[in-house]
């Protein structure tokens, strides 16, 4: 300890100058670079050698500090998550040694930019894999710096990019919808209300109704926007705010809708697997992932109920298919188009089946491990049918005048769907909960950080 204190004291007087470095930059096959980043990992080897792994969001780089550059006060007191700028030669790692990307920066000059705390406040003392989930949610802003969380966030970005490219390739136009609205889409029970300059307003549950109004304007359209649900359910697949990828298509039939959904899911999976970073992250996060085979299994709702009854799987609590559809999907273990739900358990806007007016042209996509990731349907195209639907559901038609106008000014057969990005990511990466696949999860009791 005495030795260390002496070294630390001496180190304060060591001033590094950028003296012997720049000359070698001209050597062939060697690159001299400056890199700024966060100290992701720190390993001291004896008095004269120190390995840093720097993180800058694009990747990790191992840096080797040898001799004078690791004798400074800043080097001796360096902590995880400090920010530094290093200068040096980029080399391949010596034979038999491993480093991210197979490279190593041999540092001949470096500067400390921001010192992260040591001691009790040290990053590494804040949490670990076994910490209580509450601690991890409180420290989410620090947790997202970790390998797993940052890889999932990266993957989310690659997946969202793939959704956008898919729609672009099909000439579907992106819109950005209003999130503060005065109409409900998926039932009054899950609305977040607030005062909007003294008027009653809500955070949107879905942008579907707005997307329907852009069909006659820009044609088939989609959005990737936040939706909100005041769902008082503490499950691993419900959030109070989620990223909702929704699309709407004009002049289609129910079969086209199913085809569009299948094309999108398979297209996005393929794009992610063809992306160099996407494929690498997928291998790390979910090495057993197999792309789903096509066509997806189609199962009418009535058949699903029969399947469940045969196996005595009954949901005593709710009487709804919701809770046990996951068991069915996990048993069948492939994507399922669960189709044609009864009118009474679905939303007001859904079109009825021509051959059985008790059923709707609706679909949920169920995925093993997660359950429902997509909800979609054909929409009511007839004015009077829509007016009847408002009445049946006890909805005041007045605030929906702009939506109702779509059925007056040139109606058409149309349909669409919504896909929860967090559930899709959870499925693709085999994550236990959607709380892990969003940036800052919102659920009952959690609106921080
Ligand atoms: O089935 P939902 O409620 O359908 C709609 O909102 C339609 N208006 C969409 C449309 O047709 N444009 O929600 C669609 C999807 C679900 O399948 C699920 O993936 C996701 O949105 N979702 C949620 N994800 C996380 N937490 C919640 N509370 C969610 N509620 C829905």
Automatic annotation (TrEMBL):
One of its GO terms (biological process) is asparaginyl-tRNA aminoacylation. GO terms for cellular component: cytoplasm. It is found in: Cytoplasm. Keywords: Aminoacyl-tRNA synthetase, ATP-binding, Cytoplasm, Ligase, Nucleotide-binding, Protein biosynthesis. It comes from Rhizoclosmatium globosum. Its EC number is 6.1.1.22. Residues 153-444 form the Aminoacyl-transfer RNA synthetases class-II family profile domain. One of its GO terms (molecular function) is ATP binding. Belongs to the class-II aminoacyl-tRNA synthetase family. It is an enzyme of class 6 (ligase). It catalyses: tRNA(Asn) + L-asparagine + ATP = L-asparaginyl-tRNA(Asn) + AMP + diphosphate + H(+). This is asparagine--tRNA ligase.
């Amino acid at each position: 300890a005495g030795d260390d204190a002496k070294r630390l004291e001496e180190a304060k007087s060591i001033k590094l100058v950028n003296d012997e470095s720049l000359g070698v930059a001209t050597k062939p096959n060697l690159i001299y670079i400056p890199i700024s980043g966060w100290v992701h990992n720190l390993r001291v080897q004896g008095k004269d050698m120190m390995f840093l792994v720097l993180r800058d969001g694009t990747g990790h780089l191992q840096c080797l500090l040898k001799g004078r550059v690791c004798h400074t006060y800043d080097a001796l007191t360096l902590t995880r998550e400090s920010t530094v700028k290093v200068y040096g030669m980029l080399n391949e790692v010596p034979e038999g040694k491993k480093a991210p990307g197979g490279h190593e920066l041999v540092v001949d000059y470096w500067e400390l930019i921001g010192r992260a705390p040591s001691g009790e406040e040290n990053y590494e003392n804040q949490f670990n894999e076994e910490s209580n989930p509450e601690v991890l949610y409180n420290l989410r802003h620090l947790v997202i710096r970790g390998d797993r969380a940052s890889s999932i966030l990266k993957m989310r970005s690659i997946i969202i990019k793939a959704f956008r490219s898919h729609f672009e390739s099909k000439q579907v136009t992106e819109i950005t919808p209003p999130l503060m609205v005065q109409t409900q889409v998926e039932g009054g029970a899950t609305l977040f209300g607030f005062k909007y300059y003294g008027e009653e307003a809500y955070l949107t549950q879905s942008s579907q109704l707005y997307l329907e109004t852009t069909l006659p304007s820009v044609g088939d359209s989609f959005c990737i926007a936040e939706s909100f649900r005041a769902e008082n359910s503490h499950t691993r697949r419900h959030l109070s705010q989620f990223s909702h990828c929704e699309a709407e298509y004009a002049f289609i039939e129910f079969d086209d809708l199913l085809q569009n959904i299948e094309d999108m899911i398979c297209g996005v999976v393929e794009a992610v697997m063809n992306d160099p970073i996407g494929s690498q992250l997928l291998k790390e996060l979910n090495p057993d992932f197999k792309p789903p085979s096509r066509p997806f299994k189609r199962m009418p709702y009535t058949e699903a109920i029969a399947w469940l009854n045969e196996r005595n799987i009954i949901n005593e609590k709710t009487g709804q298919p919701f809770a046990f559809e996951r068991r069915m999907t996990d048993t069948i273990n492939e994507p399922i188009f669960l189709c044609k739900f009864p009118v009474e358990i679905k939303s007001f806007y859904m079109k009825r089946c021509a051959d059985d007016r008790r059923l709707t042209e609706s679909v949920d996509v169920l995925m093993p491990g997660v359950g429902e990731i997509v909800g979609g349907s054909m929409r009511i195209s007839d004015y009077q049918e829509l007016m009847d639907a408002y009445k049946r559901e006890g909805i005041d038609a007045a605030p929906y005048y702009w939506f109702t106008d779509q059925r007056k000014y040139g109606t058409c057969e149309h349909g669409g769907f919504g896909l929860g990005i967090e559930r899709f990511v959870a499925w693709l990466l085999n994550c236990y909960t959607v709380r892990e696949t969003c940036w800052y999860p919102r659920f009952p009791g959690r609106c921080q950080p």
